[in-house]
Every structure is written in structure tokens, then in C-alpha cells.
């Protein structure tokens, strides 16, 4: 979902947690949001492709733009 769509879900309490985790496809980090009914919703561009960030700080900023004040970093190491 795009940033704007996620902001709407946040404002209606449909998403309850922001999670940053390593990308499987690229060398970087993705931002996902846990839906209140279960499952995760990824941050995507307008074409539906998952957004990947080169550093945790930039990924965290995107979660903050959605509305969250804290994020969980899921690390596979």
C-alpha cells in the first residue's frame, strides 16, 4: 500500500504496529505494518512494488510518516 493509503489505515486504527525488516529480494530494509485483523501490509510504490530502503533510518522515517511513534526492528541475525 502507498504511504497515503497507510496513513488512512493508521487514522482508522486498522494497522497497529510498524515493523522494519531486512529485504529478501534486495540488500536493504522494508517497512511492513501489522493489520489489526492479522497479517502484514507492506509499504509499496504506486505500481504496487515493495519499497526497499538502504538504511534503517530512512525506513524508520517512512513508518513515522504513516503516523507511528515507534517501530519494531526485526533482525534475522
UniProtKB/TrEMBL annotation:
Keywords linked to the UniProt accession: Kinase, Transferase
> Would you say which domain of life the source belongs to?
Bacteria
Query: Looking at the keywords, is Kinase present?
Result: yes
Q: Name one GO molecular function term.
A: kinase activity
Q: Does this entry carry the keyword Kinase?
A: yes
Name of the protein described by the UniProt record = Thymidylate kinase
Q: Which organism is it from?
A: Photobacterium aphoticum
Amino acid at each position: 500500500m502507498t504511504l497515503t493509503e497507510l496513513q488512512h489505515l493508521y487514522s482508522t486504527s486498522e494497522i497497529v504496529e510498524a515493523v522494519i525488516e531486512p529485504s529478501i529480494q534486495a540488500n536493504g530494509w522494508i517497512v511492513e505494518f501489522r493489520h489489526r485483523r492479522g497479517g502484514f501490509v507492506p509499504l509499496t510504490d504506486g505500481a504496487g512494488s515493495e519499497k526497499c530502503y538502504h538504511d534503517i533510518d530512512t525506513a524508520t522515517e517512512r513508518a513515522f510518516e504513516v503516523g507511528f511513534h515507534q517501530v519494531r526492528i526485526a533482525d534475522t541475525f
